[in-house]
Each structure stands twice: as C-alpha cells, then as structure tokens.
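Quick one:
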Amino acid sequence: MRILVIGNELHAVELKAKLGDNHAYVLVNDHRHAEKVGEKTDLIFDFLIEERPDQFQRYVNSVPAFLNTAKISLSELIHLSGKKPTGSVFGFNGLPTFINRAFIECACWQETDEPELRKIAENLGTQVMIVDDRVGLVTPRVVCMIINEAYYTVQEGTASREDIDMAMKLGTNYPFGPFEWSQRIGVHHVYELLEAVYDDTRDERYKICPLLKKEYLKTAG
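Output:
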C-alpha cells in the first residue's frame, strides 16, 4: 500500500517498524505539503491532527485515514468541522512508543465502520483493538495516569524517580518506568492528554500533579 504519513521522522520510523517494508511510505511534516501527494496514496496516518483539528475537513471525502485521537476524540473532530465524512476515518493511538505493538488501538466513528477497519488492518498485516471513541482512548489514559501518580509520589518525597522506574519495571514487567516513559512519550503529550481526559471526565484520578505541571510549563516555555 502507498501510505502518507503526516508527522515527523519519529512517527514514520515507528510506523514503518510496525507495518514493515512491504508498503511505500511518504512523509510530510505539515498538512499543506500533504495536499501535493494525498491523491497518490491509498491510506493516510495523520499524527498531527490533534494539534490542528481545523484540518479535519480534508478528510471529509478522502482516502481512508487514521487520525491520531489520543488527545481529542474522533467525534469531537467531526463536530468541530461541522461536516460528516463520506470517506472512512478512524481514530488511533498515535503517541510515541504506542505504535509498534502487537495491535493498533483504534476507535470508529460508527459501528458500521468496523468491518472496513478490520479489512484495512488485514491488508496492512496487523491486528487492531477497537476501543470506545473517547479522549485518551484506553492505553494512553492508563499509562499517563500511572505517570501522574508517580509524579505525586516524588512530590511527596516517598521515593526517587530512579527507584520508582526500577520498581515498576521489575514489579509489573512494564517496558519502561513511569518517568522514562514520560520522557519517551513527551512530557507535553502526557500533560495535555491528562488535561483533556480530566476536562472530559472530571475524574480526580486524572487531576494533574503540580510537579508534572511545573515540568510541562518549563518545556512549553
């Protein structure tokens, strides 16, 4: 398949590691450049759409597209655009470190889209895990909540970052400790995802630790 990747080099590398060399990949780093090559592709992976929800209109009549909806739901993207897509659009977990896994975590706008999603996944040679179309999806909100709790633990002086990372890897067999994972995902992604989930749920479990907020503001500045 000819796959257009809208994102950065890291996104392209992780996606290619997941899907393999049997596909042709074209990487562009913004939506303006995507217009030049979009008609020549069979499939789109847009990692940047959550930062530019105004760009959703380009997918109303496009080839099938996977849109990174870790921090904004697919339904909200469609609502903000004011137009219902006639093409096939799917949400997916596009945060760093979450692509090259056994399955791609996806959300459908409507249940009738599921058969096509599974057919596309079969053509890509991968499995999909279909989850509810909610901000944060499933894995990102769980991992970021764990990271947030780890920040609270450090803030309270209970343990060091190194000790927490080691304990989580040895005790739960996670690939990374919370702070190592936070750096790999990006502190700004962790913060913004938790902020979006808290706004959506008002669940205190996602209330951002002040220490995490402090680090986010430093990186944002």
